[in-house]
Design goal:
The protein has 8 helices and 12 strands. The protein is an alpha+beta fold. β3 and β4 (79-81) form a beta hairpin. α1 (14-27) packs antiparallel against α2 (33-45). It is elongated. It starts with 5 loop residues before the first strand and ends with a strand.
């Protein structure tokens, strides 16, 4: 299905995938941040982390076993792809279609996502719709808000579990997605390693939250930045994001990354003011019924 030189190889064995494709993922950790993070969490917390259906993983390899691209899916969520040539995207679409695999969506570097969406639409008749344009940022010189919002940052503790789980659920609803994990399980995991920072007002009331993924390949990713709607526009998210970014650097992270929705100019402007610089654009396509 692929060229004479390359072909797709699939497995549902995470350790086999990492053994064969780990060096490729580590070769460009920023561009591969999602697959590195997802596989790290699956290894730590088990294959049912995202759902009951088993994840699967694929690598595009030449005759000598050199990996040129990878893909993974953690049902019920869609495909996540690394950079792909049009040939690799077409071969991937062919394999998945012939194997009868469901593909609700694809996300990856913008050109790769377009290439797969085009191939999948052509091979299956399922219409593709651009659902989101994203930008990956990397922290340069951290520049905290000046003036800072009133209050202070603190690391969330076990006593904040209910609040953190509730805000995680609200964040997922705000971005138009269901919670990727059970909210209580997500909160427990993040709180256990000090991965959530709260911004609280001078009277101690939490008003914003920012979290980071576990460190993998020398990097962490800021995620789940949330402020309740009535409290937005007061700089709380900037304070929380700057604080969690500083904590990640102080803990030894070589790189701090984050994704934004390009349809949200407020968040893109905020992160750039804090010192985040563009790395690459990503895209998500959703597929309708054929």
């Amino acid at each position: 299905m692929a060229s004479d030189a390359y072909d797709w190889q699939f497995t549902d064995d995470l350790e086999e995938f990492l053994d064969r494709a780990g060096a490729f993922l580590w070769s460009e950790p920023a561009l591969h941040t999602v697959q590195l993070t997802v596989t790290d969490r699956l290894r730590a917390e088990g294959r049912t982390l995202y759902g009951d259906e088993a994840p699967y993983y694929g690598r595009f390899v030449d005759g000598g076993g050199t990996v040129g691209a990878t893909v993974l899916r953690t049902p019920p969520y869609g495909l996540n792809v690394t950079a792909l040539t049009a040939e690799a995207a077409d071969a991937l679409a062919a394999w998945l279609a012939e194997d009868g695999r469901a593909v609700p969506s694809v996300v990856g570097p913008a050109e790769a996502a377009v290439a797969f969406a085009t191939a999948w639409e052509r091979r299956t008749g399922a219409p593709a719709r651009l659902a989101q344009r994203q930008r990956l940022y990397r922290l340069g010189t951290l520049t905290p808000p000046d003036p800072a919002p009133p209050g202070r940052a603190r690391v969330a503790a076990a006593a904040d579990h209910e609040l953190v789980a509730r805000w995680y659920t609200a964040f997922a609803a705000d971005i138009g997605e269901g919670a990727a994990q059970d909210p209580d399980r997500w909160a427990e995991s993040r709180l256990a390693r000090g991965g959530v920072t709260l911004w609280e007002t001078p009277d101690g009331t939490p008003v914003s939250m920012a979290s980071v993924t576990p460190e993998v390949a020398g990097q962490v990713r800021v995620a789940t930045v949330y402020t309740p709607a009535p409290l937005r526009g007061r700089g709380y998210a900037g304070g929380a994001t700057a604080a969690v970014s500083r904590a990640a650097l102080d803990a030894g992270a070589k790189e701090v990354l984050l994704f934004t929705d390009l349809a949200n100019p407020t968040s893109n402007g905020l992160y750039q003011r804090l010192g985040y610089r563009p790395v690459a654009d990503f895209a998500m396509y959703e597929f309708g019924d054929a």
